[in-house]
Amino acid sequence: MNIFSITIPMFSVKHHGGTRIIIQLANSLVEKGHKVTIIVPKDKYNPIYPVNKKVIIKFVSRVGNNNIFYIKTLIEFIFKIPKSDFILANFFPTLYSSFLAEKMGKGKTIYFVQDSEEVFFTGSGFINWFFRFIVKFSVKMSSVIIVTTHYGAKKIKNFGGKKNIKIINIGLPDGVFFQEKKSNFKFPFNKNYKPILYFPRIQKVKRIEDFLKSLEIIIKKRLTFELWLVSKEIESLSYFKHFKSKIKIKILTPKNDEELRKIYSSAYLLVNSSWVEGFCLPVLEAMACGTPSVITDSKGPKEYAINNYNCLIVPPKNPELLAQAIEKMLIDEKLRNKLAANALRTAEKFKFSNFAEEFENFLINLK
Questions:
Q1: What's the helix, strand, coil split of the chain in %, to 5?
Q2: Phi and psi torsions of 37, nearest 5°
Q3: Rg (alpha carbons) of the chain, rounded to whole number
Q4: Domains 5-171+351-366 and 182-347 share a fold
Q5: In whole angstroms, what is the distance from residue 339 CA to residue 345 CA?
């Protein structure tokens, strides 16, 4: 058998879409007989996603919230990484630890890019410019890069990374996200107050401000709806305080995928207002639960999102058009049901098992 070992240095194993994919991939690989080691700071290991007992977890020192400790962690990674066939870097800082470990003969570095990492540094000033430069320089250094979308591959080529770039679409785990029967709804919606589902994030590119402006517009239209916010970020939720006197708002904090599935299934539509996204799993998860979306053209989701077929897509940075699309979905139930039916068909094509198998075969061929 073509068995390999792979080590994954990670700054954090907590609640995050990218983390979820890494954990699921690790679980899949160990079930196939491969050896997987995850290295993480002690205080950043708090997974809400189940980690297979066969996955080896190694710890480095606590990070805290001091940047100096992050640098210390990157150095510790270099020496903590065991000799492996592959070292999987999934964030540009860990790429440099992986490269140095590779120079020490510890394995071949693979750069797995799930997001547009340069957009984390959109502000002005030297520091943001410097980190944008480092992100772009990182892809130039990498000889093997795995991305999840064609947009990601195109962007990396524009940065100068023109070596071995492999596109592998991620997908949804079997039996996790599906359309619940109405009798099982934990959060049934009242047709007079159709729930709009939104995941508020304070990152600049998520453009919570654009969504707030679109809310103001549709509230003035006197449309009857309620707003469901899924978030544990207190700061992001504070943006919606002044709306409490105008519309019904529910704050939801699902403890597991089952609760999240029921929320998706009960919502009338999902809204995403980002300027840039990677693959954007929440939109696909909602599709699998029969809930269509109104999204901005944030590039990555167009891997599966088709305007007026399984969702409505509007240009980013335009709250007026976002509001128009939300209004259209709220008042045209026939359109909403058509998009929902096609969304279900679309989601069936994107399975995590296919992603994991293609990822595994790619590494086997590199070995």
A1: 45, 20, 35
A2: -120, 130
A3: 21
A4: yes
A5: 10
Q: Which residues of 301-339 are buried (b: 16+ CB within 10 A; e: fewer)?
A: bbbbbeeeebbbbbebebbebbbbbbbebbeeeeebeeb
8: exposed, middle or buried (Cβ count in 10 Å: 0-12, 13-18, 19+): buried
What residues contact residue 143 under an 8 Å CB cut-off, 6+ apart?
109, 163, 164
Which of 46, 50, 309 has its CA nearest to residue 173?
50
Q: Please give the single-letter amino acid code of residue 327.
A: E
367 residues of the chain, pLDDT tens digit each:
689 999 999 988 876 678 889 999 999 999 999 999 999 998 888 877 889 999 999 999 876 666 667 788 889 999 999 999 999 999 888 999 999 999 999 999 999 998 766 666 566 776 666 667 777 777 777 889 999 999 888 888 877 766 688 999 999 998 999 998 764 555 555 666 799 999 998 888 889 999 999 999 999 988 889 999 998 788 888 889 888 888 999 999 888 888 999 999 999 999 999 998 989 999 999 999 999 999 999 999 999 999 999 999 999 999 999 999 999 999 999 999 999 999 999 999 999 999 999 999 999 998 7
What does the alpha-carbon distance between residue 41 and residue 49 come to, in Å, rounded to a whole number?
17
Give the integer Cα–Cα distance in Å for 109 and 111. 7
Q: 5-171+351-366 sits in which CATH class?
A: alpha beta
Nearest to 307 by CA among 294, 319, 320: 294
Ordered by start, the domain boundaries in the chain are 5-171+351-366, 182-347
Domain 182-347 CATH class label:
alpha beta
